[in-house]
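Saturday, quiet lab. Running sequence design on the structure tokens for the scaffold JK sent over.
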């Protein structure tokens, strides 16, 4: 029987797939459902200094092959997530904080305050596309370098960065160099494809309200972008930084493709929103089946082993 256990910076994950920060991980009740499932860890919703209501509705729409959203970071404020950590530790799986400060000072304050908690991993979100008037940090390499430098100075936890999708090799080179120089332990790629638009020809309107219809695209549509980003960073990190693959994982076969590309684990949002926490059991079973059929006993036997054509 194949095992799908893995690790991030020495923190053991019993299975290969966990939830991504995004849907259904905002309240304690939602997080407890994740705790009770086969999800490999408990990722909490990206938080800000102050609680936020988020953007006006409709702000999330399911699509045939994914979803589009401009949620606007609705969350309870980081102090609540600090309180949740001790509640969630009883599920005996890693608890991950996702931090999405509105500015450098906010990120620094939150990183500092999570140091004194039992949180296992901190993911800093450099790629929220939905805050009106705020460009994504991950597309400004100078700022990325500065903010990361300051964060790493004050952090003793396992820390990593959630990255936006990149489409140019020079960008992969620049970002990889910054991540390596600051010794981050992991990156998560990709966040949703920012500022896309779906138009309904009947109503002659976009299908979400915020920002005049611009929103982050996720799900099956974005899997090829997620795979290329994981592969590009895997090739540049030479094993020094680990990778969460994110984007369009619906089946165990999708997870297997991310494993071939070099992902140490995968995160799932859109499928989790559509199917609920049972998706983690199904996807783990499907991944084990495909590994078993191909004669692979462990994640390490396949990781990064994409074959050249
Ligand atoms: C939101 C969307 C994102 O893609 C993200 O990384 C963080 C927050 C949001 O709009 O809530």
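Result came back. Writing it out in full:
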């Amino acid at each position: 029987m194949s095992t799908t256990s893995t690790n991030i910076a020495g923190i053991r994950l019993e299975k290969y797939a966990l939830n991504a920060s995004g849907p259904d991980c905002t309240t304690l009740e939602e997080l407890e459902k994740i705790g009770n499932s086969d999800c490999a860890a408990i990722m909490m919703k990206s938080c800000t200094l102050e609680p936020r209501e988020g953007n006006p509705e409709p702000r999330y729409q399911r699509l045939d092959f994914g979803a589009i959203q401009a949620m606007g970071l609705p969350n309870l404020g980081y102090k609540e997530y600090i309180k949740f950590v001790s509640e969630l530790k009883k599920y005996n799986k890693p608890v991950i904080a996702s931090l999405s400060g509105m500015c450098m000072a906010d990120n620094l304050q939150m990183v500092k305050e999570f140091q004194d908690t039992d949180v296992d991993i901190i993911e800093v979100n450099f790629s929220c596309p939905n805050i009106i008037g705020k460009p994504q940090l991950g597309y400004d390499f100078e700022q990325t370098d500065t903010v990361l430098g300051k964060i790493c100075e004050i952090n003793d936890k396992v820390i990593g960065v959630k990255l936006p999708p990149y489409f140019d090799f020079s960008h992969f080179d620049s970002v990889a160099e910054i991540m390596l120089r600051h010794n981050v332990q992991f990156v998560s790629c990709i966040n949703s494809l920012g500022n896309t638009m779906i138009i309904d020809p009947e109503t002659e309107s976009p299908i979400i309200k915020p920002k005049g219809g611009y929103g982050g695209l996720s799900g099956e549509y974005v899997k090829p972008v997620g795979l290329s980003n994981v592969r590009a960073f895997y090739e540049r990190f030479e094993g020094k930084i680990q990778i969460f693959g994110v984007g369009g994982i619906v089946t165990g076969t999708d997870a297997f493709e991310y494993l071939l590309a070099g992902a140490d684990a995968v995160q799932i949002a859109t499928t989790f929103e559509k199917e609920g926490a049972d998706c983690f059991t199904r996807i783990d079973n499907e991944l084990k089946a495909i590994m078993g059929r191909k004669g692979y006993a462990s994640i390490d036997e396949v990781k990064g082993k994409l074959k050249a054509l």
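Notes for JK: Residues 46, 70-73, 100, 125, 127-130, 191-192, 216 surround 3,4-dihydroxybenzoic acid (CB under 6 Å). Residues 12 and 158 are 12 Å apart (CA to CA). Ask whether to fix the surface positions before the next round.
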